[in-house]
Design brief:
The protein is an alpha/beta fold. It has 8 helices and 12 strands. The longest helix is centred in the last third of the chain and has 15 residues. The protein is elongated, with a radius of gyration of 19 Å.
């Protein structure tokens, strides 16, 4: 890497003091002797402030995007990768050599790679809890894995079922449940999605995109019934490495 130039990377989000990405990349840069690279949080209250970040920071080469801007940032970008366009959410932005902003989605890759080792032949259908930007990458990954999915949301949104409709029969058809909501994130660790946990079995996978705490109430309750559980840490590591690859291509 060219050591003459400072290279700045960062995370775009809202209220992101405790970001996984900043810690991960800071450690990576120190361990790998990337003395010319820094990673910071671009914490903005409204997406309308995003152009200020771009215009005032010449050395920025790449940005990760987190809640709530994965969809809202798209109109500010010059182009999207084919997969990001299909998914409709962006979590990685590359500043091209021509100064253009190109959006990618590495969430779907991180989720897919981290789920694959858990899959058995009977894992054919999944429930995705939540319909935000994160759930879109998850849905795209499931489609690539030939797993049918149904969204679950509060208030019967289009193309989804309501939490109140989940019962024992639902659990007999859907053997993967993925929490894509922020419910249960630290410090609110006693909260969990409103589903009937008693119907989990050892045939089920419970996957939570949350990594802090390492075992959410959602995961604890599924585990108590024998389900395989997985938190979002590996997904985050994989998507971060994929982002790094894209920025340095």
């Amino acid at each position: 890497m060219d050591t003459n130039n400072k290279k700045r990377f960062g995370l775009l989000g809202k209220n992101i003091n405790y970001s996984f990405s900043r810690g991960y990349f800071t450690d990576k840069f120190e361990a790998g002797n990337y003395e010319d690279c820094t990673y910071e949080n671009f914490d903005i209250p409204e997406i309308t402030e995003f152009p200020d970040i771009v215009n005032n920071n010449d050395e920025v080469k790449g940005i990760n995007v987190t809640i709530p801007y994965k969809e809202l940032v798209i109109p500010y970008l010059d182009k999207l990768s084919k997969k990001a366009a299909k998914i409709g959410a962006v979590n990685t932005i590359k500043f091209t050599k021509k100064g253009k902003l190109k959006g990618y989605n590495t969430d779907y890759y991180g989720f897919k790679k981290s789920l694959q080792p858990l899959l058995q032949p009977h894992h054919k259908k999944a429930l995705i809890l939540g319909t935000g930007g994160a759930s879109k990458g998850v849905a795209f990954a499931l489609a690539e894995l030939d797993i049918d999915y149904t969204f679950v949301s509060r208030g019967n949104k289009e193309n989804s079922i309501d939490y109140s409709q989940i019962n024992e029969e639902t659990f007999s058809h859907y053997h993967i449940l993925i929490n894509c909501t922020p419910v249960g994130t630290s410090p609110d660790i006693d909260a969990c999605p409103d589903i009937p946990y008693d119907h989990f079995t050892d045939k089920h996978i419970a996957y939570d995109l949350i990594y802090n705490p390492a075992e959410t109430k959602f995961l604890q309750q599924a585990k108590a019934k024998g389900a395989q559980i997985k938190n979002g840490l590996r997904m985050l590591e994989l998507q971060a490495e994929k982002s790094w690859e894209i920025w340095n291509k």
